[in-house]
Amino acid sequence: MTTQSKKQFYFRLQISQQQYLQYYQGTANAVQVVSECGKRLHFPAARLRPFLTHNGIHGRFRLTIDDNNRFIDLQMF
């Protein structure tokens, strides 16, 4: 049995509701951010949907990926 290790990256987002609407409508389908350690991250915008409020998406997040850079989890802190 093999155990895959996980990588975690922290970043902050400030996206207005109007900006996120572009992702929701399919005009844009991916989000690109720079993590606190300087790594550029690219992931599907749909992963942010649970965090959308009337004010948009604002906060600090932790993205967890596996060794193959596949999405595991996204949490807000």
Structure description:
By secondary structure, this protein is mainly β. The chain has one domain. It is 10% helix and 47% strand. A hairpin with a 4-residue loop joins strand 4 (57-66) and strand 5 (71-76). The model has no long low-confidence stretch (mean pLDDT 90). It has one helix at residues 17-24; strands at residues 6-15, 30-34, 40-44, 57-66, 71-76.
Short description:
This protein is mainly beta and 77 residues long. It is built from one helix and five strands; from the N terminus they run E-H-E-E-E-E. The strands form two sheets. A three-stranded antiparallel beta sheet has the order 1-4-5. Strands 2-3 form a two-stranded antiparallel sheet.
Overall 3D shape? globular
> H/E series, N to C?
EHEEEE
Overall residue-averaged pLDDT value? 90
Strand order of the largest sheet: 1-4-5
Query: What's the domain count?
Result: 1
Our measurement of the CA-to-CA distance between the termini, rounded to an integer number of angstroms, reads 32 Å
From the alpha carbons, calculate the radius of gyration and give it in angstroms.
13 Å
Give the uncertain stretches in residue-range form. Answer: none
The helix content, as a percent range, equals 10-25%
Strand content: over 45%
Outline the biggest β-sheet: 3 strands, antiparallel
Structural class: mainly beta
Got a strand count?
Answer: 5
> How many H/I helices?
1
Reconstruct the topology from this structure.
Blueprint: E1 6-15, H1 17-24, E2 30-34, E3 40-44, E4 57-66, E5 71-76
Features:
3-stranded antiparallel beta sheet, globular, 77 residues
